[in-house]
Amino acid sequence: MEILKKFTLTDFYEKYKNFIREADQKGALELLIPLFGKEELELPHPLIPDVVGYCVQSKKIELTNIMYFMDEAGAHKWAIVQITSFINAVVIDDNCFVFMASPVNIIESLFNKSNGYLWDFFKKEDVVVKKFGGFLVDQKRPYHFFYDALVNAIEIDENVDGAFFYSGREGDFIGVDKIFDKSYAGRAKEDESYAYPAIINGMRMFGKSQKFMSQVFKMEKFLINFHTPSYPDSKSLVNEVRNDVNRGSIAIWFGVSNGKRKWFQQVESCVFLVKALLNENSSVVLLVDGHTSPQGEFNDKNGDFDVFSFIQSELSSVKNVKIISLIGHDYVTKIETCKEVDFFVSYSGTGAFIPLRVCKKPGVVHKNESLFAFPDDYGGKVLLVEGEDFFDNKKKEKGRGFVDYKIPHEKIMQAILQLRLRGFLSCEVETNSSLQKVLEKHGVAKSALPLFYDICDILSCYSPSATEVLSKNIEVMKSDLTHQ
């Protein structure tokens, strides 16, 4: 099989290629929407003008949905590979035409000998035709479930009469049955074929397409108001957090990872932050987030628990700290819990999804030198801290999403200071008079003093030279604020 990245196909596919290139969500929807809501999914042949084919089979394998097409006579066969877009690749005979913004490594893996059965469709003379059922809202990775599949499925549902939506044979990250109500048709069936409801890769469109972002805001608003019964432990956890968050306490959402992309100083930084915040709050509620399970499930078999255990051990002797693990819970539970949070520190991938996008909390997002999944204007209440990439030989070849990185805890604290300066965080105790004198010396308005010195008190607990550091940097910080 030859992988081709430069090619010319028939008009329909060239138009779609151009919409991807231009990040034109509106144009892509106008091209695709007229195809949906019919009894059959009909597409023009990619190479032969005036030949039309029908989706007669589909195969879901891991992150990929493959739709198989042929004409009414059973000839002119081709396949469409869907991963993050409606069309990531077209397969005809021994050629694979890969479209822009597609995960080439996943497409290439489809042609391994072990997956040869995926292409038996082209060899068989008698093909079993499976009725086209509609759209399969199913993805194993949360980002792609929400920002490739669900966000577009909601748009299709609102604009196409007669479109039906199915959930995967495994668990959903959110209740597809509750979202689509009358247009929900149950779990996928073996004797039907389905399309994946993506339009254009969400990572390509995020922050670039006004139409796509309007869809995103609509979906996120739906999620923050999404209430559905969950498992008993979920309800007790949410109630526990609500009871623990009270006057004099501060609730922090702290994301951890022991997987493909790690911040090396996450444990020591979390411990430092908690101890520092205890200086100005009567208690700290620490919510440690990590792996998320399908809705209604809880999975405690994940490496993120190891990170949580290290944090728990380091803080075991510290008084007035309540540590709660959210690792392994579902999205409904996490969203309800996050509503009680004051601010967050999270990874720049899907780990930031709930506090950053759904609950819209102030906070700090940290990242390696390449990846930020949610570029947008956050009105100054979210700060991005970039780390120094640290390449592990085994991860280096896998791409930017797998690169670990280093960030000293001082940089995270500096970002939190900036949030204080902007008025997004506050505390319950009076401040250090020596720091107040430093600030007054540098001409900080008296009304703004609390925003400056609250977190400076924190720093002074751990660094005797905090006032000296503040003196050197206060003018820079004031200038930064002026230009934000």
Please explain how this structure is put together.
This protein has 484 residues and is an alpha/beta fold. It has three domains: 223 residues, no CATH class; 175 residues, Glycogen Phosphorylase B (Rossmann fold, 3-Layer(aba) Sandwich), CATH 3.40.50.2000; 50 residues, no CATH class. It contains 17 helices and 19 strands. The strands form four sheets. It has a seven-stranded mixed β-sheet with strand order 1-7-6-5-4-3-2. A six-stranded parallel β-sheet has the order 14-13-12-15-16-17, covered by helices on one side. Strand 9, helix 5 and strand 10 form a beta-alpha-beta unit. Helix 14 packs antiparallel against helix 16. The N and C termini lie far apart (52 Å).
Q: What's this model, at a glance?
A:
The protein has 484 residues and is an alpha/beta fold.
What structural class results from the helix and strand content?
Answer: alpha/beta
Mean pLDDT value: 86
Strand content: 15-25%
Major sheet details: 7 strands, mixed
Total number of beta strands:
19
Helix content: 25-40%
C-alpha Rg, in Å?
26 Å
Question: Would you spell out the secondary-structure blueprint of this structure?
Answer:
Blueprint lengths: L1 E3 L6 H11 L3 H8 L9 E3 L7 E10 L2 E7 L7 E5 L6 E4 L2 E4 L5 H6 L21 E7 L4 H18 L5 E3 L8 H5 L3 E4 L4 E4 L6 H4 L4 H15 L7 H13 L4 E7 L10 H12 L5 E7 L14 H11 L6 E5 L5 H8 L4 E5 L5 H6 L4 E5 L14 E5 L1 E3 L2 H4 L7 E3 L2 H13 L11 H9 L7 H14 L3 H17 L2
Parallel strand pairs: 1-7, 8-9, 8-11, 9-10, 12-13, 12-15, 13-14, 15-16, 16-17
Antiparallel strand pairs: 2-3, 3-4, 4-5, 5-6, 6-7, 18-19
Helix pairs in contact: 1-2, 4-7, 8-11, 9-10, 9-14, 14-16, 15-16, 15-17
